[in-house]
Amino acid sequence: MGYEAKCRARVDDGSGTVREADATVLLETDELIVRGEARIRIPRASIQRVASRAGVVTVTSPQATVSLTLGDGAEKWQKKLLEAPKRLIDKLDVKQDAKVWLWRVDDEALAAAVSERTPNVLRGSSASGCDVVFVGVDAERDLARIDRAANAITDSGAIWVVHRKGPAGVADTTIFARAKRLELAYTKVARVSATHTAEKLVRPVAARARK
Length: 211
Known about the structure:
- By secondary structure, the chain is of the alpha+beta class.
- The chain has two domains: 3-82, Pleckstrin-homology domain (PH domain)/Phosphotyrosine-binding domain (PTB) (PH-domain like, Roll); 88-210, Vaccinia Virus protein VP39 (Rossmann fold, 3-Layer(aba) Sandwich), CATH 3.40.50.
- Helix content is 23%, strand content 39%.
- The mean pLDDT is 94.
């Protein structure tokens, strides 16, 4: 999940027109996003300088100079912007040598990251005793895949439900409702790519005892 704040944003992209407006600002794994009338996206890899003064964080990049009036949160944002982005595989909590099932997930970068972390990767149509299952859910008709994933994990295992963002994908509330039926709890969300996100589901301790 990204870092988010509402603040006043000032964007100078060198076009001769400086835009300033109230904005929602998000710091994702690989980009800084300013939403609203002063909208812009800055790749984190392109950020050249981050400075903080009197509650204002200024981010300098080839795309634009962005000033964010964050008040008391300015120093925290400066620190986050200066940190090296956390790798996706670490955000997904995949441990060394974990047993992982990749099922109906068509994302080459994710598959490569998982295979780099552990050699125990399954790609068939069934699995059992898994520490982590990544399952793709493209439409509501695919929700039954979560049921099969739940049967494939250990008591302490986790399921990542990978789905498309926005109205074209399955709503997270629909996924949560299915999880509740299966006595699974939602604990985390992660951005998988520009088009896909994933929700983490686990079996609560009380449900493990009943099982």
